[in-house]
Design goal:
The complex is a heterodimer of chains A (404) and B (156). Chain A is an alpha/beta fold and 404 residues long. Chain A contains 13 helices and 17 strands. Chain A folds into two domains: 134 residues, Aspartate Aminotransferase, domain 1 (Alpha-Beta Complex); 255 residues, Type I PLP-dependent aspartate aminotransferase-like (Major domain) (Aspartate Aminotransferase, domain 2, 3-Layer(aba) Sandwich). In chain A, 40% of the residues lie in helices and 17% in strands. Chain A is globular and about 75 Å long. The termini of chain A are far apart. Chain B has a single domain, classed as Sufe protein. Chain: A (Alpha-Beta Complex), CATH 3.90.1010.10.
Chain lengths: 404, 156
C-alpha cells in the first residue's frame, strides 16, 4: 500500500469538518480509523456476532477463533515469544493498573521504590500513586533535561537498592523524546529490576521487538494505532503472568469455583475476566494488517521526515517556541506561541479545520518542570502531509494577527 | 465571523492587560478556581467588610485570553458591590453564559452589560464556557455561596 493516497483509506477525511477539510494533528491523543477497521466492526456485529470462549455453538467457536487470531497477530507484530504473553485490557491505562496492582500486591512493601520519569503520562504515575497510599511505597522521578530527554545516566543515578520496578515511557507524548529503552532495560536487569514500558506512543510509530527489547511489561493503546477505542494490550513475560495474582475476578478467568475456594484459569484467561471488548479485538486485527501492509518502517520514515519538516517550518516562524529538542524524536511537535495561550490557539486553529491539542496533555509533572501550565501540540499519523503542516503554520499566523 | 465574536476588542484588551491583577495585602477572603482540563487557575482575593460589601477585589492566575478577560471584567464590576447584589449579578452572568440570550439583572448598568456580553461568544464553543466562568466560580466560593440543589448552575 502506498503512502501517497493513504488519506483515502480513512473515511473521516471525506467529510468536511465545519466546512473545512480536516487537518488532523491530534494522533498522539487518538488516531483516525481506516475503513477496513470500521467495516470489520460492522461485519462482526451484523454477520458473526457471538461471545467468545464460552459456548460451543457455531458462532461462538468462529468468534473465539477470530478473537484469538488477533492475539496471534499482535504477538507477531511485537515479536513476543508466546501468544499467551498478550493480554487484552480496556486500554493501556488498565494494562499499567494491572501491573501496578498485582506486582505491588505481591512484591512491594513500605520503603520500596518505584522509579518513573518526569516525562510520564498520568496513566503511568497515578496507578503507582495508589501503592504510595496503600503500602507506603516511594515514587521517584528521573529528571528530564533541558532538551526534554531522560538519559540512561539519569536513570542509573536514580536507581538504589530499594528500586523494585522501573516504569518509563517509550516515547514522550509532549517532548517527543524516544528513550533508550533497550539500554535502560539492560541496566535494570543487571540489577535484577523489572521494567515496564508505557508504549502508548511507541507502538503506533516504532518497530517493536519484545524479545530483543527484553522488557518485562509493555503497555499498548489500540485506539492510537488506527484501532478501536476501549481496547489496550499488556505484553508481559510469561513468568510474570504466571507468578502474579489475577487482577479482576469474574467469569472466564476461573478454573474451578467452589464455596470454599476458587482456582484460576490458565493464561491468558487468568487476566481477561468478564466479557471482553470482542468486536474491538477482532477489528484491531485489521489495524495490525493495515499497518503491516504499509510497513511500520515506512510509517516511521514518513513520520520522521514530516517531523523534521514541521520543525523547520515552525522554527522559521519567529513567534513559535518548540518544546523539547531530544536526541531521538518521535512525531510530536509541542510548542507555545508568543502572547497567545494554547487554548486560544486551539480554538482559532479549529476554525480552519486544524485539530490540535492544547493543555497539559495529561503530563502535569512535566509541565510544572517546564514552568508552563499548558502547551499546544501537533502530533502526526500516517495520513499527515507537508501540506497539513503548512496549514498549521498559516493558521498560527492567523492567531498572531488576531492577538497582535 | 465567529472568531471575531469570540475574540472581541474588549476581550483582547482585558486579556492582554488584566485589571486588578495581583494579590493585595489586606484581603480577608479568597478562593481558587481551577480547570482540571487545561490546568488553568484563577485565584480571587476579596476584602469584605462587615456589611458584606466588596471593598477591594483582585485576582491572580494564568490562563487563556477568555479566562483572564472574564476575571478582569468581573473584578472591575464587583468592586463596591454588596451582598446580595453580588449573588444576583453572578447568577445572571452564569445564566447568560449557559443559556439566556441576555442579562436580566437591573443591577447591571448598560455599559457593564456591554462588557459582560462580550464574553457571550463562548456559547458557540462549549469547551470554552468553563474559561469564561472560572473566576466567577472562585468568587462564589470566596463569598461562601452554596450551589442550589435543584440547579447546579445557580448559587444560593
Amino acid at each position: 500500500m502506498s503512502l501517497k493516497d493513504i488519506k483515502k483509506e480513512f473515511p473521516i477525511f471525506n467529510n468536511k469538518i465545519q466546512n473545512n477539510d480536516l487537518v488532523y494533528l491530534d494522533s498522539a491523543n487518538s488516531s483516525q480509523k481506516p475503513q477496513v477497521v470500521v467495516d470489520r466492526i460492522y461485519d462482526f456485529y451484523t454477520k458473526e456476532f457471538s461471545n467468545v470462549g464460552r459456548s460451543i455453538h457455531y458462532l461462538a467457536v468462529a468468534a473465539t477463533n477470530l478473537y484469538e487470531n488477533t492475539r496471534t497477530l499482535v504477538q507477531k507484530y511485537i515479536n513476543a515469544k508466546d501468544k499467551n504473553e498478550i493480554v487484552f485490557t480496556k486500554g493501556a491505562t488498565e494494562a499499567i493498573n494491572l501491573v501496578a496492582n498485582t506486582f505491588g500486591q505481591k512484591y512491594l512493601k513500605e520503603g520500596d521504590e518505584v522509579l518513573l520519569t518526569e516525562l510520564e503520562h498520568h496513566s503511568n504515575y497515578v496507578p503507582w500513586h495508589y501503592l504510595r497510599k496503600s503500602k507506603g511505597v516511594k515514587i521517584k522521578f528521573a529528571e528530564m533535561d533541558e532538551n526534554g530527554d531522560v538519559t540512561l545516566e539519569t536513570i542509573e543515578k536514580n536507581i538504589t537498592d530499594k528500586t523494585k520496578i522501573i516504569a518509563i515511557t517509550h516515547l514522550s507524548n509532549v517532548t517527543g523524546a524516544i528513550l533508550p529503552v533497550k539500554e535502560i532495560t539492560k541496566l535494570a536487569h543487571s540489577k535484577n529490576i523489572p521494567v515496564l514500558i508505557d508504549g502508548c506512543q511507541g507502538a503506533p510509530h516504532l518497530k517493536l521487538d519484545m524479545q530483543d527489547l527484553d522488557c518485562d511489561f509493555y503497555a499498548i493503546s489500540c485506539h492510537k494505532m488506527y484501532g478501536p477505542t476501549g481496547l489496550g494490550i499488556l505484553y508481559a513475560k510469561k513468568k510474570w503472568l504466571e507468578e502474579l495474582p489475577p487482577y479482576q475476578g469474574g467469569g472466564g478467568m476461573i478454573r474451578e469455583v467452589k464455596k470454599e475456594g476458587i482456582t484460576f484459569g490458565e493464561l491468558p484467561n487468568k487476566y481477561e475476566a468478564g466479557t471482553m471488548a470482542t468486536a474491538q479485538v477482532i477489528a484491531f486485527g485489521e489495524s495490525i494488517k493495515f499497518i503491516n501492509k504499509i510497513g511500520i518502517e515506512n510509517i516511521e520514515k514518513h513520520e520522521r521526515e514530516l517531523t523534521v519538516y514541521g520543525e523547520e517550518v515552525l522554527r522559521k516562524n519567529n513567534s513559535v517556541k518548540l518544546i523539547g529538542n531530544p536526541k531521538d524524536k518521535g512525531s510530536v511537535l509541542s510548542f507555545t506561541l508568543d502572547g497567545v495561550h494554547p487554548h486560544d490557539i486551539a480554538t482559532i486553529l479549529d476554525e480552519d479545520g486544524v485539530a490540535i491539542r492544547a493543555g497539559h496533555h495529561c503530563c502535569q509533572i512535566l509541565h510544572e518542570k517546564l514552568g508552563l501550565s499548558a502547551t499546544a501540540r501537533a502530533s502526526l499519523g500516517v495520513y499527515n502531509t507537508k501540506e497539513d503542516l503548512d496549514q498549521l503554520n498559516e493558521s498560527l499566523n492567523k492567531c498572531k494577527k488576531i492577538f497582535s | 465571523m465567529d472568531l471575531k465574536e469570540l475574540y472581541q476588542e474588549i476581550i483582547l484588551d482585558h486579556g492582554k492587560n488584566p485589571r486588578n491583577l495581583g494579590k493585595f495585602e489586606n484581603f480577608n477572603k479568597d478562593a481558587e478556581g481551577y480547570n482540571p482540563l487545561c490546568g488553568d487557575k484563577v485565584h480571587v482575593y476579596l476584602k469584605l467588610n462587615e456589611d458584606k460589601e466588596i471593598e477591594d477585589i483582585s485576582f491572580e492566575g494564568h490562563g487563556c485570553a477568555i479566562s483572564m478577560a472574564s476575571a478582569s471584567i468581573m473584578t472591575e464590576l464587583m468592586k463596591d458591590k454588596k451582598n446580595p447584589e453580588v449573588k444576583e449579578i453572578l447568577n445572571d452572568f452564569l445564566d447568560m453564559i449557559k443559556q439566556s440570550p441576555e442579562l436580566k439583572s437591573q443591577l447591571i448598568k448598560e455599559d457593564e452589560k456591554t462588557k459582560l456580553m462580550s464574553l457571550s461568544g463562548v456559547k458557540r464553543y462549549p469547551m470554552r464556557v468553563k474559561c469564561a466562568t472560572i473566576a466567577w466560580h472562585a468568587l462564589a466560593s470566596a463569598m461562601n455561596y452554596k450551589k442550589d440543589e435543584n440547579n447546579s448552575e445557580k448559587f444560593i
